[in-house]
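Example record

One chain of 136 residues, shown exactly as stored in the release files.
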Amino acid sequence: MKAGKKKILATALACGLALGGVALEKARANSIPTQSDVVWIGVAIGAIGAGIGIGIYFAFHHCHSLNGCAISGSSGLEIKNRGDDQIYSLVGAVNAIKPGDRVRVSGKKVKRSAGPAPQFVVEQLSKDYGPCPVRL
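Predicted structure tokens for this chain:
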């Protein structure tokens, strides 16, 4: 290479390194978060955590449903809940429920009245799992 081309190449290389260093220095200066950035990051993390918590709650919480075996009781149709092994008297839309089937029903629990078992007002039959398993 001739001396003129080497000088131009060296100058271009020096300018490129200098510009790269300036850009790197700007990136470092912009990488320090401000106090408002930190606050917004905290808010975002809190919102994500709350969203995950609420999603898990609704995915696994079935407070308005019972799952168990339907049986014929003295006061009509009853269900033995698998969750707490308590027996509930079923009232409401119970036409589709057959005694001896394991079902999941949706509705509302009624506070204990004068009857021997608490009542559950059935709004709908959510799922019929078929016959209850036989226990020996």
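Notes: The radius of gyration is 35 Å.
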